[in-house]
Automatic annotation (TrEMBL), chain A:
Chain segments annotated as coiled-coil in the UniProt record: none
Repeat is among the record's keywords: yes
PANTHER family reported in the protein's UniProt record: PROTEIN PHOSPHATASE PP2A REGULATORY SUBUNIT B
Keyword list, A-Z: Repeat, WD repeat
Any one of the GO CC terms: protein phosphatase type 2A complex
Organism: Amazona guildingii
Identification of the protein by name: Serine/threonine-protein phosphatase 2A 55 kDa regulatory subunit B
Protein family per UniProt: Belongs to the phosphatase 2A regulatory subunit B family.
Gene3D superfamilies: YVTN repeat-like/Quinoprotein amine dehydrogenase
Automatic annotation (TrEMBL), chain B:
SERTA domain boundaries: 30-77
Protein name: CDCA4 protein
The organism of origin for this protein: Eolophus roseicapilla (Galah cockatoo)
A Pfam family hit: SERTA
Biased composition (Polar residues): 129-148
Region (Disordered): 126-148
Gene that encodes it: Cdca4
Gene Ontology cellular-component annotations: nucleus
Coiled coil location: none
Length: 420, 249
């Protein structure tokens, strides 16, 4: 199994898509309630697997283009088929996933196994009839949106109009129509005329869940810009600018790096947005630009280790974050296969571990604690014992229920609320 | 001579600078660590050139860090002369043996032979991909146990040091631009040591005791703001040139 690079529930939560470093997409489907197998309710099983992207070679630059799936975004379901967008560094593809549970039998010109019938043998005409067959799930690429990005695509976001979507790379954001593959509109361009002056890149972008003219993008300097597409064709001038003033007492050479935002997500309500930087998660009220309304420390104990984390490149890890369906809780990943959940109302937080050793199936997860001081209590783990290769970068929360998907390197864990 | 507007910073035991090893280690550790961070950053920028395609965000963040360090260094004008020959030698050998940073330019000037460099060159000119990954894994595993704080760099001539910094940055970005195996030789070619004259700024400038702890680079406090001057500007222009080549690749 390959390293999972993205996880995403669809709008109903019945389907869960994962993309991996090898360019594959695996879709899981939730089992229906079944009286004869009561334990299988809520289980996710493999529904479809397909190769979305292949490695490519850019002959002009003599560089390989990785097939790793950076992001998957589902489209809202409009008919029996499911549609999703998957992207690697350069190309976005629209996939149609459809079920086939019937097949036609009784063709006139060919046999059941497909061989052509000898015309002289055909003496009568018959009408083919549909017969049930074993369920087959087919994935087919319906659109390929290519050649629009010079830099690496880091985000895609489907608009609330269900007709357009945006794709963002390090320096530009493009607006696409789902039906049109040979054209896209550039709506943000922060590439300086003189590349010597480049000091900031785009790290994530997302459309507002309700207002189809509004989107945000975050930067490597810890800022978020909200843009309104009605104001101008090229949204280089933001409508709102979100930045928290820096605390001068905690400034170090790593301040900028740890302030770089790795993910931005609107709340389901559309009133708030959440940003993830290296050490914390911040919730912003869209009406207040000068500081976040809530800040949650994910792993503050790493602040004293920033130099080592810079040395081993972990400081550049891009963690994602997600909201629960009611926007009352948020979740993000950390190291050592730990992930953190914060309840916004009670202000309680919990650290859990996604690993086979630490929990058996259907066992309740035990909260974990990282020991920062000198004396380590039993069951605590010290900061120096953390495994920085086991990082949870991608998590997803079911849109309505308390079911979460956690990607731990090449394993996918699905957890749900204890059912009484 | 001192740059106008800059206070001469003194610290206790200036006379002791050639005194005990402990004294030398404790007081200038901030600068050493900063230099280590700078070197590490340069290595990172160099390494990312060898990968499939450099992650632009990471490169920009590292370049910004390099720029920040350089700004602070030029503002402080802090170039410690540390004559800890034995420890400096040891750490330098260890560095060279990991094939990370080839100090051939300076070594050649001093007439020393650097064993690791020629091997590195050969490997690189051979089959790139395989050797690169091996080299890089060597780098990462060698760097991990290295205690930054214990690396007391051998800093002799501050101008030479500065020149090396500038030149090595330029070399890095030349290779980035060219993107060909032959350009690696440029990286290790001889350096003009009198590249940059910082006499007026550096003479007599000492660091103040910023670093209270010896815990490493994490304890950097905010740099003291001093009057900038035209020398700083040209430094920054050099650095801009770096970023240009870096990001255009």
């Amino acid at each position: 199994a390959d390293i999972i690079s993205t996880v995403e529930f669809n709008y109903s939560g019945d389907l869960l898509a994962t993309g991996d470093k090898g360019g594959r997409v695996v879709i899981f489907q939730r089992e229906q309630e079944n009286k004869s197998r009561p334990h299988s309710r809520g289980e996710y099983n493999v529904y479809s697997t397909f190769q979305s992207h292949e490695p490519e070679f850019d002959y002009l630059k003599s560089l390989e283009i990785e097939e790793k799936i950076n992001k998957i975004r589902w489209l809202p379901q409009q008919n029996a088929a499911h549609f999703l967008l998957s992207t690697n560094d350069k190309t976005i593809k629209l996939w149609k996933i459809s079920e086939r549970d019937k097949r036609a039998e009784g063709y006139n010109l060919k046999d059941e196994d497909g061989r052509l019938r000898d015309p002289f043998r055909i003496t009568a005409l018959r009408v083919p009839i549909l017969k049930p067959m074993d369920l087959m799930v087919e994935a087919s690429p319906r659109r390929i949106f290519a050649n629009a990005h010079t830099y690496h695509i880091n985000s895609i976001s489907v608009n609330s109009d269900h007709e357009t979507y945006l794709s963002a790379d390090d320096l530009r954001i493009n607006l696409w129509h789902l039906e049109i593959t040979d054209r896209s509109f550039n709506i943000v361009d922060i590439k300086p005329a003189n590349m010597e002056e480049l000091t900031e890149v785009i790290t994530a972008a997302e459309f507002h869940p309700h207002h189809c003219n509004v989107f945000v993008y975050s930067s490597s300097k810890g800022t978020i810009r909200l843009c309104d597409m009605r104001s101008s064709a090229l949204c280089d001038r933001h409508s709102k600018f979100f930045e928290e003033p820096e605390d001068p007492s905690s400034r170090s050479f790593f301040s900028e790096i740890i302030s770089s935002i790795s993910d931005v997500k609107f709340s389901h309500s559309g009133r708030y947005m959440m940003t993830r930087d290296y050490l914390s998660v911040k919730v912003w009220d869209l009406n207040m630009e000068n500081r976040p309304v809530e800040t949650y420390q994910v792993h503050e104990y790493l602040r004293s280790k920033l130099c080592s984390l810079y040395e081993n490149d972990c400081i550049f890890d891009k963690f994602e974050c997600c909201w629960n369906g009611s926007d009352s809780a948020i979740m993000t990943g950390s190291y050592n296969n730990f992930f953190r959940m914060f309840d916004r109302n009670t202000r309680r937080d919990v650290t859990l571990e996604a690993s086979r050793e630490s929990s058996k199936p259907r066992a309740v997860l035990k909260p974990r604690k990282v020991c920062t001081g000198g004396k380590r209590k039993k069951d605590e783990i010290s900061v120096d014992s953390l495994d920085f290769n086991k990082k949870i970068l991608h998590t997803a929360w079911h849109p309505m229920e308390n079911i979460i998907a956690v990607a731990a390197t090449n394993n996918l864990y699905i957890f749900q609320d204890k059912i009484n | 001579m001192f740059v106008r507007g800059l206070k001469r910073k003194c610290f206790d035991g200036e006379e002791d600078i050639e005194g005990t090893l402990a004294g030398i280690k404790a007081i200038p550790s901030y600068n050493l660590q900063r230099q280590s961070l700078l070197d590490m950053s340069l290595v990172k920028l160099q390494l990312c050139h060898m990968l499939v395609e450099p992650n632009l965000c990471r490169s920009v963040l590292i370049a910004n860090t390099v720029r920040q360090i350089q700004e602070e260094m030029t503002q402080d004008g802090t170039w410690q002369m540390i004559n800890t020959q034995s420890t400096g030698q040891a750490s330098l050998d260890r560095l060279v043996s990991t094939d990370i940073l080839c100090r051939s330019s300076r070594e050649q000037a001093e007439g020393k032979h650097v064993p690791g460099c020629s091997t590195f060159n050969k490997d690189f000119e051979g089959d790139q991909a395989q050797d690169n990954s091996e080299t890089m894994s060597t780098v990462s595993s060698a760097q991990a146990p290295r205690n930054l704080q214990s690396n007391v760099w051998e800093m002799e001539n501050p101008q030479e040091n500065k020149g090396n910094f500038q030149k090595s940055l330029d070399q890095i970005f030349e290779t980035l631009e060219n993107k060909s195996p032959n350009s690696v030789e440029d990286l290790f070619s001889e350096v003009d040591n009198s590249y940059y004259d910082l006499d007026t700024m550096l003479t007599g400038m000492m660091s103040n005791t910023k670093m209270g702890h010896c815990d490493g680079l994490e304890t950097f406090s905010s740099p003291t703001t001093t009057a900038s001057n035209s020398n700083c500007k040209s430094d920054l222009n050099e650095l801009d040139h770096i970023v240009e080549i870096l990001v255009e690749s």
